[in-house]
């Protein structure tokens, strides 16, 4: 019994619907992140001292590892999708397993990062910077 399903590609707009949907999603992400980074730049320029002091609490090694894990998981997921399209079940399972390993690795590093911050008295629901500088 085969588990693959061949669905007809619909192109009412001149593009396959899946491709059009992905381009709309990418455009919405570009709009969201443009606003996000714009707000970040404005707020950073209004509070340069606070951002500089807060940046000293960031662990660049952990951030680099987390970024590498996220990029790797994107690659392994894309490879899993490609293997599935080619009907290569063994490779699909391998790449999907590696994606799940990356997910748990990412969660592990995030847990370590948050535990370290909590140990130093830095919590998301408090204004730790103003409490430390007002003493």
Percentage of residues in DSSP E strands: under 5%
Helix-and-strand structural type: mainly alpha
Categorize the overall geometry.
flat
Give the termini separation: 71 Å
Low-confidence stretches: none
| Main sheet makeup | none
Which H/E pattern describes the elements?
HHHHH
Query: What is the CA-based Rg, rounded?
Result: 22 Å
- Mean pLDDT reading: 87
Q: What assembly state would you assign to the polypeptide chains in this entry?
A: single chain
Specify the helix fraction band.
over 70%
How many helices? 5
> Please, how many domains?
2
Strand element count = 0
Overview of the molecule:
It is a single chain. With 135 residues, the chain is mainly α. It folds into 2 domains: 15-46; 58-133. It is 76% helix and 0% strand. The protein contains 5 helices and no strands. Helix 3 packs antiparallel against helix 4 (89-119). The termini are far apart. The model has no long low-confidence stretch (mean pLDDT 87).
């Amino acid at each position: 019994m085969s588990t693959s399903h061949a669905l007809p590609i619909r192109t009412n707009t001149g593009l396959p619907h899946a491709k059009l949907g992905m381009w709309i999603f990418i455009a919405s992400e570009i709009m969201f992140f443009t606003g996000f980074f714009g707000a970040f730049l404005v707020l950073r320029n209004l509070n340069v001292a606070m951002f500089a002091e807060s940046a000293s609490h960031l662990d660049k090694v952990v951030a680099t590892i987390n970024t590498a894990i996220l990029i790797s998981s994107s690659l392994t997921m894309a490879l899993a999708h490609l293997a599935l399209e080619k009907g290569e079940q063994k490779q699909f399972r391998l790449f999907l397993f590696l994606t799940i390993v990356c997910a748990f690795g990412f969660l592990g590093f995030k847990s370590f990062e948050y535990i370290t911050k909590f140990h130093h008295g830095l919590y998301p629901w408090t204004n730790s910077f103003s409490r430390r500088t007002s003493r």
